[in-house]
Amino acid sequence: MLTRRGFVQLGGALFVFLRMPAAEGETSSLDPTLLASWLEIRSDNTILARTGRTETGTGMSAFYAQMIAEELCVRPETIALVMGDTDRTPDGGYSAGFLTGAENVRKVAAYTCQALLALSATQLGVALPELTVSDGVVSGGGKSIRYGELVKGQHLDLQIPISGKPTRMDTSSGNGVAGLDGFVVTGSPAMKPMGQYKVIGTSFPMPGIPAKVTGKMQWSCDVTLPEMLHARMIRPATLGSTLISVGTVDKKRFPTAEVVKKGSLIAVVSPNEWEAVSATRSVAAGTKWTEWAGLPGSESLTKSLREKEWGSPASRGNADDVAAALVNAPRTISASYEQPYVRHAPIGPFVALADVRADGMVTVWTHSSHSQGLRARIANLLAISTEKVVVRWLEHAGQYGRTTFGGDGAESDAVILSQLTGKPVRVQWTLQEDLAWSTVSPAWVSDMKAGVDGNGRITVVHSSFFSPNNFDARLLGAMLAGMPCGTTKTGGWVATEWPYDKIQNRLEQAYAMPNLGAASVTGGLRGNIMRTPGQRQQNFALEGLLNEAAAAAGADPIQFRIEHTTDQRLIDVLKATAKAAGWEPRAAPHANARKTGIAAVTGRGVCAIKRSNAYWVGIAEVSVIPASGVLQVTKFTIGLECGKIINPRQLDRCMKSGLVMGLSEALKEEVTFDRGRVTSTDWNSYRILTMAETPEIQVVQISRDDVGFGTGGEAANAVAPPAVAAAFFDATGVMARRIPLTPAYLSAILRP
Amino acid sequence: MLTLSVNGAEHTVSATPETPLLYVLRNELKLTGPRFGCGIAQCGACAVLVDGKEVRACVAPVSTVAGKRVTTIEGLGSDAKLHPVQQAWIDEQVPQCGYCQSGMMIAAVVLLARNPDPSVAEIKDAFTNTPPSPHLCRCGTYSAIIDAVQRAAKAMRA
C-alpha cells in the first residue's frame, strides 16, 4: 500500500500530488481516493486537513481537528483545516450534522497513521510492533523520528477507499438533490480505543475564535474583487406579484447606479455600496407589481390547514394493531397541538459574491453549509457543467439548516446579476428581505391519541402530523428570473425517534401538502428544514401527550417516562437531570396551581428527546402571572448523553445556546403573514429571545465510551417547548398545546 | 472630504456626509469588525464606540462622528495585548457563529466602564434595555456572554 516515490523538489510536503477528477459530474474537484486530497503533513510537522463540511458555529472546526489529532497521534494545535471550498476539498457533503463528515477525516487519519508507522519501521529499521507514536514522534528501539522529518520530500502513494457520489440534481428527491453525504470513506482502519483517547474529551478551543474577536476574520461578507459591483434587490410586492414596470434611477442623485433586470428579478447595482442602497430605495418606490393574495393569513392558518384534503400519509407502525388496541383500551386521551411557521433568522442576512467570467468559469463566495449542493444548483441554473463552478466557503452568520440542501439566499441573485453585467457582483440582502424571502420552517398541526390501561399507563399511541412542504431548496433568484431553479416534491415525513419502547402499539402518520401559496411565481412560503427538523415539531406533540397522560394518571412525569422505556440510556439521563434540578417526585399540576390572580404561580415541567444516538432531557421552571398571561422561565436544567463527548466546553456552549433558541421558539417566535406577504419582517415583528429573558441554565453531561459518538449540538432547541408548556400546566392546571406561549395566547387559554 | 479619527489614526474619507458610518468603516477603511446586521439599529452587530459611547454604525451618518474618537473592535486592544473583554471572549469560548459578537464586546466595554463589577441582572439589563435596541444573538450565546463579562470585569479590577 505504501511506496516511496523518490524526492519531491517542491513544497517539502509528503502529499502534494493532486489530480483533476476522472469523470465529469462524478467527483469533487479533488480526487477523494488520494490521501493527498485529504491531508498534507508538512516538513515543519504541521498538518493541513481538508473537509467539504463547514463550521456552522457549533465548534465543528474544533471537533474535526480533535478527531484527526486523536487518530494521527498529534496535537490538535498543529492541524489547520480547509473547509467547504469545492475546489480544495475532496468529499463534499452537507453540514447538517457532524457525524458523517467527521467519520471521513477520522478514518483518513487512521489510515495515514498506519502508513506512517509502516514508513517509520522501514526508515528506523525497527519492527512495526515495537513502534509507538506520540505528538507526531514515532519511537522504538531507542530511536525516534518526527512525522515531518519522516515524510520530508517524499510522496505517500496511499489510496483512500471511498463510496458515494457528490451532491447532484435529482428531480425524484423531495429536496431536489441526491448525494447529501458526498463521498464517504469506507473500510475499517484500526482506530484508537475510546478509553485511550488523549485529545477527544478535552476542551480544545474553537480555532476561529481569536480572529473573530479581534476583527481579523475574513467573513463571506468581507470578500471584495476588482471591478466589483454592489447590488441590492427589489422584491415583488407580494409572494405572487409579477413585474408591471420598473422605476428609474435619478442619475443626478445616483450617477453610478444602474437597474439590472431579468424577468421579475430586479436589482440596482453600483460600485459604491451606499449609492446602491439609496438608489434601490428610490427605484423600488417607482416599481409597479401585479396584485396577488394567495395565502390564508397567519391568523387563519390552523383553520386553513384543517380544511385541506391531505391525501395519504407516510406511515410508521401497524395500523391494524393500533386500531384494535385503541378500541380495547379502557380509556383514551386525545389532544391536538399546533406550531406556527418560524424561521432561521440569522443576525446577518444572506450575502453572496459571484464572478461569472467570459470564459464560462463561475466562482461563488458563500456561507452555505452545503457547498457541493449549491455548486450543483448553480450549474443547473446556468445549464453548465459542475466543473465550471467553484464555490468558496467562508464563515458568516449561522444558517441553522436553511442551506442544507444547497438552497440559496443571495447566491443565485449574484450569479444572474454577474452574468448580466459581466462583472463580479456582491448581493447583500436586507434584514426585511431575509425575514420575508428566505425559506421558512413550516407550521405543524398534530393530532395525538393514546390508549391507557387501568393504571393510566400508555399502551398505544396514534400520532397524526400535518405540515406543508419542508424540503424546498429551490433558488429564489432563478425563480424570479424565470431560469432553472431546481425542483421540490411534497412528501410525508415521520421524523421522531421512538424512545418509549414499552409502548409497542404505535402508529405515526405524517401528511404533507405543497407550500402555502405554492402556485405563486416565487413558490409561496418556501418551507425548508431548520434545526432538529420535523422531530422538534413532532416531539412537541409526543412529549405533550406523555405529560398529559402522566397528569391524568396522577403520576410523576419523570417516573412515568421511566415506566415506559427499557432504554437505560434514557433512564440514566432522566435520573441525572432530575437530580441536578432537585426534582422531587409528584404529579402535575402543583397543589397551589392557580389560573387567576396577579400574584405569580410557579411550576416545573419535563421532556425528553432521542436523536441521532443522543438522549436529551429538559426540565423547565417557570413563573406565571395568571392575570396577564406573562410567563418567565426562571431556570432550565438540560441534560444530555451523546455517547463519547468530544469537547465538554464546546458542548456546554452548544447546549446552552441551542436551548436559548428553543426557548425563543417556545415563547416568542411566529412568522406572521397576510393574504399576500410576510408581515414579520424586522426584529420588532419577528421577535427572538433577549438576554434578559434567558434563564439560569444548568447543564448535565454524561459521556460514555461504549456507544460511539452522537450528535451533541443540534437538538438542544427541541427540549425547550414541551418542558416549558408542561411547566405552565404545572403552575396553572391549564394545558398549553400551542407555541409560542405569548401572554395573549396564555391569557386566552386561562380565561376561555 | 471628512476627516475621521478611528482607532487612534486620522483618516480622510470620500463618502458623502449622509453615508452611514458602517459603510465607511467597512468599505473605505477596511475595518470589517463592525458588521451589517439589520441596518435599522435593531440588533447591535454594527456597534462601535464614539467618544466611549456605543453608536450603531449602520444608521449614524458619517458626518455626525467627524471630530470624535471612533473605536472598533480592531482598536480595542493590540496584537501584543488584547483588551480584557476580547481575552475573556476567547477564554470563555463565547462565539458560536460569532457574527453578533463584535457588537456584544462593544456593549461589554461600555458597561464595564460605568460599572466595574456588574451583577448578572445588571449585565442582562445592559444588553437588553439600553437604547436603541437589545443586542441580539441568534445562536443564543447570552449565558456565555454573561460569563465573559464577569471574567473581564474581574481581570480589569485586578
Describe the protein's architecture and organization.
The complex is a heterodimer of chains A (752) and B (158). In chain A, 26% of the residues lie in helices and 21% in strands. In chain A, a hairpin with a 4-residue loop joins β26 and β27. Among the domains of chain A are: 35-217, Aldehyde oxidase/xanthine dehydrogenase, molybdopterin binding domain (Aldehyde Oxidoreductase, domain 4); 222-291 and 350-428, Aldehyde Oxidoreductase, domain 4 (2-Layer Sandwich), CATH 3.30.365.10. By secondary structure, chain A is an alpha+beta fold. Chain B is α+β, with helices and mostly antiparallel strands and 158 residues long. Chain B is 35% helix and 13% strand. Chain B has helices at 21-28, 84-91, 101-114, 120-129, 142-157; strands at residues 2-6, 9-13, 47-50, 53-56, 69-71. The longest helix of chain B has 16 residues, at 142-157. Chains A and B meet through α5, α6 and α16 of A and α1, α2, α3, α4 and α5 of B.
Brief summary:
The complex is a heterodimer of chains A (about 750) and B (about 160). Chain A has about 750 residues and is α+β, with helices and mostly antiparallel strands. Chain A is about 25% helix and about 20% strand.
CATH class descriptor name of the domain at 35-217 in chain A: Alpha Beta
Main beta-sheet strand count, sense and barrel state of chain B? 5 strands, mixed
CA radius of gyration of chain A is 27 Å
Strand order of the largest sheet of chain A: 13-14-11-21-18-19-20
E-strand count of chain A: 28
- The total of helices of chain B stands at 5
- Secondary-structure element string of chain B: EEHEEEHHHH
Look at the helices and sheets of chain B and give the structural class: alpha+beta
Strand order of the largest sheet of chain B: 2-1-5-3-4
Instruction: Specify the oligomeric state.
Output: heterodimer
Q: Which two chains have the most extensive interface, and how many residues on each?
A: A-B, 60 and 59 residues
Helix content of chain A: 25-40%
Helix-strand makeup class of chain A:
alpha+beta
CATH topological fold name of the domain at 35-217 in chain A: Aldehyde Oxidoreductase, domain 4
Alpha carbon gap, first and last residue of chain B: 44 Å
Largest sheet of chain A: 7 strands, mixed
Unreliable runs of chain A: 1-28
